[in-house]
Amino acid sequence: MGHSRHSARYTRPVCGRAYETYTDEALAFLSSNGQPPSLEWLRPNFNLAPTQNSPVVVMRNGTRTFEAFRWGLVPFWAKTVQAASKYSLINARGEEIAEKRTYARLLQRRRCVVPLSGFYEWKREDKTKRPFAIHLQNRSVMCVAGVWDRWQPAGEPDPIHSFSIVTTKANSFMAEIHDRMPVILDAEDIEHWLDPEVQEPEHVLPLVRPCPPEWLAAYEVSTAVNSAQNNSPVVLEPRTP
After folding, report:
1. Whether pLDDT at 192 is above 60
2. Of these four, 53, 87, 126, 175, which has the most CB atoms within 10 Å of its CB?
3. Has this prediction a pTM greater than 0.90?
4. Hey, what domains does the chain have and what are their CATH numbers?
């Protein structure tokens, strides 16, 4: 998205894959003016993996803007992008986000929304893991809470903007698949989450909670999704017996 999507070797934690198959028109409700954004760089991604770029929504001068950020936070203290990758900062645990030095400042001042069509999660059964696609019942775009940072490489003119997805304990629906899930925001939450005037953790943390279970639906997909190199509509097809 905007930049080449490449995959990397990493250990997959909770919410370590997602998909983004929406159009500009589907994102209109996230714009400040209610109009579809004109994102020439927007492309469907059927198997979004860490180190790839994803659309995010951030506030710039009081206006919601859509930008392509790297999934996998490169924090302010990182010496290199490679060093940051070792910590696999693709998720920020909501229970710890206000205390962790990597995230505390971002929770106050650098929150974002990550629009997804859905995400993948693996259900462990004995020695096997079955992948599922999880999506919203009634909306084509899932608005996930994120935090972002800006990292300036030494000697380079362009900074790297990156993000982590905020996670929480699973609701009763997700608990059948995994014990964690991303924080999924409703319309009212989005406004509050992005508001730059809201900086006190006690006014933000109430949003870090599991969504109602009735919001979600899921179906099993094939293990083709296990490899980030498989990035086509095939990975979203329901698994056949």
Report:
1. yes
2. 53
3. yes
4. 53-236 (3.90.1680.10)
